[in-house]
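From the pipeline queue, job 12 of 40. The input is one protein chain; the requested action is below.

Action: predict structure.
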Amino acid sequence: MIENVAREPEIIDLATYLNNMGATIRGAGTDVIRIEGASKLAANNAHTIIPDRIEAGTYLSIAAAQGDGILVKNIIAEHLDSFLAKLEEMGVVMDVGEDSIFVYPSGELHGVTIKTAPYPGFATDLQQPLTPLLMKADGEALVIDTIYPKRTRHVPELLKMGADIRVEDDHIKINHSEQLTGATVAAEEIRAGACLMLAGLMANGETTITKVDNILRGYDRVVMKLQGLGADVQLVDSAS
């Protein structure tokens, strides 16, 4: 028996995959999972991994911040309920389809309070990718990360780009930033890197992101996807 288990959809997907191979796992999706030993596991029918909700949320943030009408495909919208609710509260207009979401060009946006929580609450992995969009909103936005209160490594990097952002008592306070300026910044971790990637798309001038491996390990073919949307982005080999 495993207690205090994550309840994310990925856990359910993994348990389903293993059960189809002969495992006996009960309780996936709750905070207690019970496992009965199996003598062997055997290959069964092909299993399709569920869409990456954090990758999807990142692209939805990009679409809302810079898009001129963007369709994000391969999404399970119910896995993003808390995130989508905040986008709507901000004023982002979307059409949610069966497995895709169309994001309309953003008009007036409003600052909101983000408070992360275990699933199905607002995911801690999406507070950083959403931050640049919050900079476009009127008024002050507030991010309270109850999962990782010290998840603020993106803030000093955003300050280099001219963002009006600060950390007080582990709360991130974000004000409308009229214009960001390109700078050299470091992706100190995966979601901070996604945040800086969006900030770079929004900024005037050229932005160089170092430690880019932290982005690439979580965002498959991200350069190709952004280029396909018309973004001026290149992956540069620092050794060249």
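Job complete. The two ends are 52 Å apart (CA to CA).
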